[in-house]
Amino acid sequence: MYKVLHVDSDASSREATERMIDWARLGLDIQAHASHSAEACALFDKQRFSLVLINMKHSHAEGLKLCGQIRQNSQVPIILLGGSPDYALVKQALLYQVNDYLAEPVKSSHLSDSLRNVIELLNRSEPVASPQTAPSQERSKPSPVVEIVMRYVQAELHQNITLKKISDALHFNCAYLGRKFKNEENMSFNEYLLQQRMEKAKRLLEQTDMRIYEIANEVGYTEIDWFYKKFKEYTGISANEYRKKQVVAR
DNA sequence: TGCTCCATACTATTAAGTCA
DNA sequence: TGACTTAATAGTATGGAGCA
Questions:
Q1: pLDDT tens digits for A68-96?
Q2: Residues 148-187 of A with CB under 7 A from strand B
Q3: Does residue A116 sit in helix, strand or coil?
Q4: Which domains does chain A have, with CATH numbers?
Protein backbone atom coordinates (compact mmCIF):
# COMPACT_ATOMS: atom_id res chain seq x y z
CA MET A 1 0.00 0.00 0.00
CA TYR A 2 1.31 3.43 -0.94
CA LYS A 3 0.67 6.16 1.61
CA VAL A 4 -1.12 9.28 0.41
CA LEU A 5 -1.23 12.76 1.95
CA HIS A 6 -4.39 14.58 0.82
CA VAL A 7 -4.35 18.38 1.07
CA ASP A 8 -7.61 20.29 0.62
CA SER A 9 -8.84 23.35 2.51
CA ASP A 10 -12.48 22.37 2.02
CA ALA A 11 -13.78 19.29 3.83
CA SER A 12 -16.71 18.68 1.47
CA SER A 13 -14.59 18.80 -1.68
CA ARG A 14 -12.05 16.55 0.05
CA GLU A 15 -14.76 14.00 0.76
CA ALA A 16 -16.06 14.28 -2.79
CA THR A 17 -12.60 13.59 -4.21
CA GLU A 18 -12.14 10.61 -1.93
CA ARG A 19 -15.51 9.16 -2.94
CA MET A 20 -14.48 9.27 -6.63
CA ILE A 21 -11.92 6.49 -6.37
CA ASP A 22 -11.61 3.02 -4.88
CA TRP A 23 -8.25 3.82 -3.30
CA ALA A 24 -7.62 0.44 -1.70
CA ARG A 25 -8.20 -1.30 -5.02
CA LEU A 26 -5.46 0.82 -6.56
CA GLY A 27 -3.13 -0.03 -3.70
CA LEU A 28 -3.35 3.41 -2.12
CA ASP A 29 -4.09 4.39 1.45
CA ILE A 30 -4.99 7.97 2.40
CA GLN A 31 -2.90 8.18 5.56
CA ALA A 32 -3.37 11.84 6.43
CA HIS A 33 -5.32 14.98 5.61
CA ALA A 34 -4.22 18.60 5.77
CA SER A 35 -6.29 21.71 5.22
CA HIS A 36 -3.43 24.16 4.56
CA SER A 37 0.21 24.13 3.52
CA ALA A 38 1.67 24.63 7.02
CA GLU A 39 -0.23 21.60 8.31
CA ALA A 40 0.83 19.59 5.25
CA CYS A 41 4.50 20.52 5.74
CA ALA A 42 4.34 19.54 9.42
CA LEU A 43 2.87 16.14 8.49
CA PHE A 44 5.41 15.75 5.73
CA ASP A 45 8.28 16.31 8.19
CA LYS A 46 6.91 13.70 10.61
CA GLN A 47 5.85 10.97 8.21
CA ARG A 48 6.96 9.51 4.88
CA PHE A 49 4.37 9.59 2.06
CA SER A 50 4.46 7.95 -1.38
CA LEU A 51 2.17 10.52 -2.98
CA VAL A 52 0.82 14.00 -2.23
CA LEU A 53 -2.57 14.99 -3.63
CA ILE A 54 -3.21 18.75 -3.52
CA ASN A 55 -6.57 20.35 -4.32
CA MET A 56 -5.80 23.90 -5.41
CA LYS A 57 -9.40 24.78 -6.34
CA HIS A 58 -9.78 27.34 -3.54
CA SER A 59 -6.31 28.89 -3.83
CA HIS A 60 -3.99 28.34 -6.78
CA ALA A 61 -1.21 30.29 -5.06
CA GLU A 62 -1.42 28.19 -1.89
CA GLY A 63 -1.29 24.94 -3.90
CA LEU A 64 1.75 26.01 -5.90
CA LYS A 65 3.46 27.35 -2.77
CA LEU A 66 3.09 23.95 -1.15
CA CYS A 67 4.56 22.26 -4.24
CA GLY A 68 7.59 24.53 -3.97
CA GLN A 69 8.00 23.76 -0.25
CA ILE A 70 7.81 20.02 -0.88
CA ARG A 71 10.25 20.19 -3.78
CA GLN A 72 12.87 21.89 -1.58
CA ASN A 73 13.74 18.53 -0.07
CA SER A 74 11.66 15.81 -1.69
CA GLN A 75 10.90 14.33 -5.11
CA VAL A 76 7.71 12.63 -3.87
CA PRO A 77 5.07 12.40 -6.67
CA ILE A 78 2.55 15.27 -6.53
CA ILE A 79 -0.84 15.44 -8.26
CA LEU A 80 -2.53 18.85 -8.44
CA LEU A 81 -6.31 18.94 -8.69
CA GLY A 82 -8.80 21.68 -9.39
CA GLY A 83 -6.49 24.12 -11.15
CA SER A 84 -7.55 26.31 -14.03
CA PRO A 85 -6.43 25.45 -17.58
CA ASP A 86 -4.46 28.72 -17.65
CA TYR A 87 -1.12 27.86 -19.27
CA ALA A 88 0.90 30.08 -16.88
CA LEU A 89 -0.36 28.01 -13.93
CA VAL A 90 0.25 24.71 -15.72
CA LYS A 91 3.76 25.84 -16.61
CA GLN A 92 4.55 26.83 -13.04
CA ALA A 93 3.23 23.51 -11.76
CA LEU A 94 5.36 21.66 -14.27
CA LEU A 95 8.44 23.59 -13.22
CA TYR A 96 7.81 22.18 -9.74
CA GLN A 97 7.83 18.78 -11.46
CA VAL A 98 4.31 17.85 -10.43
CA ASN A 99 3.33 14.47 -11.85
CA ASP A 100 -0.06 15.57 -13.06
CA TYR A 101 -2.22 18.69 -13.24
CA LEU A 102 -5.94 18.06 -13.46
CA ALA A 103 -7.90 21.19 -14.28
CA GLU A 104 -11.49 21.70 -13.12
CA PRO A 105 -13.84 19.88 -13.52
CA VAL A 106 -11.89 16.85 -12.28
CA LYS A 107 -13.43 13.63 -13.61
CA SER A 108 -12.94 10.36 -11.78
CA SER A 109 -11.55 8.78 -14.98
CA HIS A 110 -8.87 11.51 -15.18
CA LEU A 111 -7.96 11.11 -11.53
CA SER A 112 -7.76 7.33 -11.69
CA ASP A 113 -5.59 7.49 -14.84
CA SER A 114 -3.34 9.93 -13.13
CA LEU A 115 -3.09 7.75 -10.02
CA ARG A 116 -2.30 4.69 -12.16
CA ASN A 117 0.55 6.56 -13.84
CA VAL A 118 2.01 7.49 -10.47
CA ILE A 119 1.65 3.93 -9.18
CA GLU A 120 3.47 2.68 -12.27
CA LEU A 121 6.22 5.17 -11.54
CA LEU A 122 6.39 4.10 -7.89
CA ASN A 123 6.48 0.43 -8.88
CA ARG A 124 9.34 1.12 -11.27
CA SER A 125 11.33 2.98 -8.63
CA GLU A 126 10.89 0.19 -6.08
CA PRO A 127 14.16 -1.70 -5.50
CA VAL A 128 14.28 -4.72 -7.81
CA ALA A 129 15.94 -7.99 -6.78
CA SER A 130 18.34 -8.13 -9.71
CA PRO A 131 18.80 -4.85 -11.46
CA GLN A 132 19.77 -5.69 -15.02
CA THR A 133 19.88 -2.27 -16.58
CA ALA A 134 23.08 -2.00 -18.53
CA PRO A 135 24.73 1.42 -18.37
CA SER A 136 24.42 1.75 -22.14
CA GLN A 137 20.64 1.30 -21.86
CA GLU A 138 20.22 4.04 -19.27
CA ARG A 139 18.52 7.11 -20.68
CA SER A 140 19.77 10.48 -19.55
CA LYS A 141 17.22 12.73 -17.87
CA PRO A 142 15.44 14.96 -20.39
CA SER A 143 16.18 18.68 -20.30
CA PRO A 144 13.68 20.79 -18.27
CA VAL A 145 11.98 22.11 -21.36
CA VAL A 146 11.47 18.62 -22.85
CA GLU A 147 10.22 17.46 -19.48
CA ILE A 148 7.71 20.35 -19.46
CA VAL A 149 6.51 19.32 -22.92
CA MET A 150 6.09 15.68 -21.84
CA ARG A 151 4.27 16.56 -18.64
CA TYR A 152 2.03 18.99 -20.49
CA VAL A 153 1.11 16.25 -22.98
CA GLN A 154 0.30 13.82 -20.17
CA ALA A 155 -1.74 16.38 -18.23
CA GLU A 156 -3.69 17.78 -21.18
CA LEU A 157 -4.08 14.63 -23.28
CA HIS A 158 -7.81 15.21 -23.67
CA GLN A 159 -7.22 18.68 -25.14
CA ASN A 160 -6.19 19.68 -28.64
CA ILE A 161 -2.40 19.70 -28.18
CA THR A 162 0.01 20.91 -30.83
CA LEU A 163 3.73 21.51 -30.67
CA LYS A 164 3.07 24.99 -32.02
CA LYS A 165 0.84 25.91 -29.06
CA ILE A 166 3.38 24.60 -26.56
CA SER A 167 6.35 26.23 -28.24
CA ASP A 168 4.52 29.55 -28.47
CA ALA A 169 3.65 29.41 -24.78
CA LEU A 170 7.22 28.55 -23.83
CA HIS A 171 8.63 31.18 -26.24
CA PHE A 172 10.62 28.58 -28.19
CA ASN A 173 10.86 28.15 -31.91
CA CYS A 174 8.57 25.31 -32.96
CA ALA A 175 11.18 23.67 -35.22
CA TYR A 176 13.87 23.91 -32.59
CA LEU A 177 11.66 22.46 -29.84
CA GLY A 178 10.58 19.59 -32.10
CA ARG A 179 14.18 18.74 -32.89
CA LYS A 180 15.31 19.03 -29.30
CA PHE A 181 12.48 16.69 -28.28
CA LYS A 182 13.48 14.14 -30.92
CA ASN A 183 17.18 14.33 -29.97
CA GLU A 184 16.43 13.58 -26.34
CA GLU A 185 13.53 11.14 -26.64
CA ASN A 186 14.47 9.37 -29.89
CA MET A 187 10.95 9.94 -31.16
CA SER A 188 9.21 12.93 -32.68
CA PHE A 189 6.74 15.03 -30.71
CA ASN A 190 3.89 13.60 -32.76
CA GLU A 191 5.01 10.02 -32.20
CA TYR A 192 5.11 10.68 -28.45
CA LEU A 193 1.68 12.35 -28.50
CA LEU A 194 0.20 9.47 -30.50
CA GLN A 195 1.77 6.87 -28.18
CA GLN A 196 0.33 8.57 -25.08
CA ARG A 197 -3.12 8.88 -26.67
CA MET A 198 -3.26 5.31 -27.93
CA GLU A 199 -2.03 3.78 -24.67
CA LYS A 200 -4.72 5.69 -22.78
CA ALA A 201 -7.35 4.65 -25.33
CA LYS A 202 -6.28 1.00 -24.91
CA ARG A 203 -6.60 1.33 -21.13
CA LEU A 204 -10.07 2.84 -21.42
CA LEU A 205 -11.19 0.12 -23.84
CA GLU A 206 -9.91 -2.55 -21.45
CA GLN A 207 -11.12 -1.10 -18.19
CA THR A 208 -14.32 0.81 -18.94
CA ASP A 209 -17.59 0.40 -20.85
CA MET A 210 -17.28 3.85 -22.42
CA ARG A 211 -18.46 4.17 -26.02
CA ILE A 212 -15.73 4.50 -28.62
CA TYR A 213 -16.66 8.10 -29.47
CA GLU A 214 -16.42 8.94 -25.75
CA ILE A 215 -12.96 7.37 -25.56
CA ALA A 216 -11.90 9.25 -28.71
CA ASN A 217 -12.99 12.47 -27.02
CA GLU A 218 -11.25 11.54 -23.81
CA VAL A 219 -7.89 11.12 -25.55
CA GLY A 220 -8.14 14.37 -27.48
CA TYR A 221 -9.73 13.38 -30.80
CA THR A 222 -12.58 15.64 -31.85
CA GLU A 223 -13.20 13.47 -34.92
CA ILE A 224 -14.03 9.84 -34.24
CA ASP A 225 -13.14 8.95 -37.86
CA TRP A 226 -9.62 10.09 -37.32
CA PHE A 227 -9.43 8.17 -34.04
CA TYR A 228 -10.50 4.94 -35.82
CA LYS A 229 -7.80 5.40 -38.40
CA LYS A 230 -5.01 6.15 -35.91
CA PHE A 231 -6.04 3.37 -33.54
CA LYS A 232 -5.97 0.79 -36.32
CA GLU A 233 -2.60 2.07 -37.53
CA TYR A 234 -1.18 1.87 -34.01
CA THR A 235 -2.56 -1.49 -32.88
CA GLY A 236 -3.22 -3.23 -36.21
CA ILE A 237 -6.88 -3.85 -35.25
CA SER A 238 -9.93 -1.65 -34.87
CA ALA A 239 -10.99 -0.30 -31.47
CA ASN A 240 -13.96 -2.64 -31.37
CA GLU A 241 -11.88 -5.72 -32.14
CA TYR A 242 -9.39 -4.65 -29.51
CA ARG A 243 -12.11 -4.45 -26.85
CA LYS A 244 -13.59 -7.82 -27.85
CA LYS A 245 -10.16 -9.46 -27.65
CA GLN A 246 -9.59 -8.03 -24.16
CA VAL A 247 -13.00 -9.31 -22.98
CA VAL A 248 -12.21 -12.82 -24.29
CA ALA A 249 -8.78 -12.73 -22.66
CA ARG A 250 -10.30 -11.90 -19.24
C1' DT B 1 25.78 25.75 -29.16
C1' DG B 2 21.44 27.74 -29.54
C1' DC B 3 18.52 29.38 -32.46
C1' DT B 4 15.74 30.93 -36.95
C1' DC B 5 14.10 30.56 -41.74
C1' DC B 6 11.94 28.05 -45.27
C1' DA B 7 10.56 24.25 -48.40
C1' DT B 8 8.37 20.09 -48.14
C1' DA B 9 6.64 15.96 -46.14
C1' DC B 10 3.43 14.57 -43.04
C1' DT B 11 -0.76 14.78 -40.11
C1' DA B 12 -5.34 16.30 -38.74
C1' DT B 13 -9.70 17.54 -40.29
C1' DT B 14 -13.73 17.20 -42.99
C1' DA B 15 -17.08 15.26 -46.01
C1' DA B 16 -19.17 11.58 -48.21
C1' DG B 17 -19.93 7.15 -48.35
C1' DT B 18 -20.69 1.78 -47.02
C1' DC B 19 -21.95 -1.86 -43.91
C1' DA B 20 -24.18 -4.36 -40.06
C1' DT C 1 -27.27 4.45 -35.21
C1' DG C 2 -22.68 3.19 -34.54
C1' DA C 3 -18.51 1.45 -36.66
C1' DC C 4 -15.53 2.01 -40.16
C1' DT C 5 -13.17 3.53 -44.96
C1' DT C 6 -11.56 6.70 -48.44
C1' DA C 7 -10.12 10.97 -50.54
C1' DA C 8 -9.27 15.94 -50.67
C1' DT C 9 -7.47 19.77 -48.33
C1' DA C 10 -5.55 22.85 -44.75
C1' DG C 11 -2.45 23.24 -41.26
C1' DT C 12 1.62 21.63 -38.76
C1' DA C 13 6.09 19.31 -37.94
C1' DT C 14 10.44 18.20 -39.72
C1' DG C 15 15.02 18.68 -41.49
C1' DG C 16 18.52 21.21 -44.19
C1' DA C 17 20.95 25.36 -44.33
C1' DG C 18 22.81 29.07 -42.22
C1' DC C 19 23.47 32.93 -38.74
C1' DA C 20 25.28 34.97 -34.20
A1: 788 777 778 888 888 776 666 766 676 67
A2: 160, 172-173, 175-176
A3: helix
A4: 2-125 (3.40.50.2300), 144-190 (1.10.10), 194-249 (1.10.10.60)
